[in-house]
Design a protein that fits this description.
The chain has a single domain, classed as Undecaprenyl pyrophosphate synthetase (3-Layer(aba) Sandwich), CATH 3.40.1180.10. Helix 1 crosses helix 2, helix 3 packs parallel to helix 5 and helix 6 packs across helix 7. The protein is built from eight helices and six strands, in the order βααβααβαβααββα. The protein has 239 residues and is an alpha/beta fold. A six-stranded parallel β-sheet has the order 3-4-2-1-5-6, with helices on both faces. The protein binds 3-methylbut-3-enyl trihydrogen diphosphate (IPE) (2 copies) and magnesium ion (MG).
Length: 239
């Protein structure tokens, strides 16, 4: 992989349900396969030099799904927290849970705290798992925090109070599964992210698919409001 590597990639991992349905499997089987894809994606991000990976695993709105799917997703998270820490350790991955913890079971909450603590010293890749997360929830909780502290909301103070304040904004936002929408993900932080949509369903999103997204990103010209001519030659798009 050559060219510019995004420092921070955010991913809406969509398409698990359709992956399963096409195989006449229950939707939860698609989520299980999606966890395999995520494990490999974490590994490949580390290999390619990405420094922060933020994934959307369960949205504030996903509670509206059938009860058996919701409980299947909760079990999958609890199991992953119990089993995946050794790999995260081996690969130097620091896990952060991002989302509203109230509403999650005691078992899941305890697993989150343990996995975060166990990986706290790792520095190769920051891995944010957004679970019971919504971009609007994040902005609202940040505003509430400022109000409680009697602080004036500004772009800087709000930015500091957000649940993702420990990382810079995503450079590249990927959504798999064919839909071209944000579905309440990183609303504040994606103000200047490059957006990349692919029809590939999340369980099929492997190394080659990530490499393709990275190559696409490397061809983009990020102007941040400036003109093309103003950009330093090193940042200019290579035709
Ligand atoms: C994304 O896959 C995973 C979660 C929302 C938890 P979906 O379950 O939304 O898959 P599709 O969109 O139904 O195929
Ligand atoms: C977004 O996917 C949430 C996650 C990937 C966790 P959805 O499948 O829930 O999104 P919508 O509802 O189709 O927009
Ligand atoms: Mg979906």
């Amino acid at each position: 992989m050559t060219g510019r590597i995004p420092h921070h990639i955010a991913i809406v991992m969509d398409g698990n349900g359709r992956w399963a349905t096409r195989r006449l499997l229950p939707r939860v089987a698609g989520h299980k396969k999606g966890l395999d894809a995520l494990r490999q994606c974490v590994r490949h991000c580390g290999e390619t030099g990405v420094k922060v990976l933020t994934v959307f695993a369960f949205s504030s709105e996903n509670w509206k799904r059938p009860a058996d799917e919701v409980s299947g997703l909760m079990e999958l998270l609890a199991g992953a927290l119990a089993r995946e820490v050794p790999q995260l350790q081996a690969e130097g991955v620091r896990l952060h849970f991002v989302g509203e913890r109230a509403g999650l079971s005691d078992k899941v909450r305890a697993g989150l705290v343990q996995a975060e603590a166990a990986t706290a010293a790792n520095t190769r890749l920051v891995f944010n798992v957004c679970f019971n997360y919504g971009g609007r929830w994040d902005i609202a909780q940040a505003a509430a925090k400022l109000a409680q502290q009697g602080e004036t909301p500004t772009e800087e103070s709000l930015g500091r109070a957000l649940a993702l304040a420990h990382v810079p904004d995503p450079d590249l936002l990927i959504r798999t599964g064919g839909e071209e929408r944000l579905s309440n993900f990183v609303l504040w932080q994606c103000a200047y992210s490059e957006l990349y949509f692919t029809d590939t369903l999340w369980p099929d999103f492997g190394d080659a698919a990530l490499d393709e997204a990275l190559a696409d990103y490397a061809r983009r010209e990020r102007r941040f409001g400036r003109t093309s001519e103003q950009l330093a030659p090193v940042h200019r798009k290579v035709a």
